Amino acid sequence: MKSLTQTDTQLFHWLFGLTAKRDCRWIIWMSRTGDGHLYLVLGLLLWLFEAEHGALFLYSALLAYSLELPVYLILKKFLRRQRPCDLLQNFSAHITPSDKFSLPSGHTAAAFLMASLIASFYPSTLILVYGWASIIGLSRVLLGVHYPSDILAGAALGLSMSYFSLSLL
């Protein structure tokens, strides 16, 4: 486990180093597309204007997020992994984290959940939506608020909650 943590930390330093002393506005903007507002707007627009799958998409998303959020909160409180900006010395993130702990990444979980739902209902968007979700996850590392393994855990959480909700409906 120690070598996994070391590798995770080394990879974090390498990725974060790519943004050192650089303008990160576009990375911050990409990260903010995963704040959640876009998901609600998309769900409502599809519900209103897409007769074939819109309603089922919205219901699936509401179910998936109602399952994902409690699991996410329980994992954060149970695992209590400190964020890089709180743990590493002489380090400052590009943004202020949204909460205290880093594992799993909530932005990444939500993005992969949404990407999975969109790709399930609209398969032609698969590359676009998974690329977008991956960029959100990467942005969280580049901004200094998550380790790479936080991103992998978030992606796994989002995907599993999406698949579970789709199997129920």
Structural write-up:
Its main location: membrane. The chain is mostly helical and 169 residues long. It has a single domain (1-167), classed as Vanadium-containing Chloroperoxidase, domain 2, CATH 1.10.606.20. 72% of the residues lie in helices and 0% in strands. The chain has helices at residues 2-17, 25-32, 37-49, 54-79, 84-87, 106-121, 126-142, 148-168. The chain is globular, with a radius of gyration of 16 Å. The termini are far apart.
The helical percent reads: over 70%
CATH architecture: Orthogonal Bundle
Strand content: under 5%
Tell me the number of helical segments per DSSP (H or I, 4 or more residues long). 8
Query: Distance N terminus to C terminus?
Result: 38 Å
Rg, Cα atoms, Å: 16 Å
Low-confidence stretches: none
- Tell me the name of the CATH class: Mainly Alpha
DSSP strand count: 0
| Structural class computed from helices and strand pairing | mainly alpha
Largest sheet: none
- Helix and strand string, N-terminal first? HHHHHHHH
CATH topology description: Vanadium-containing Chloroperoxidase, domain 2
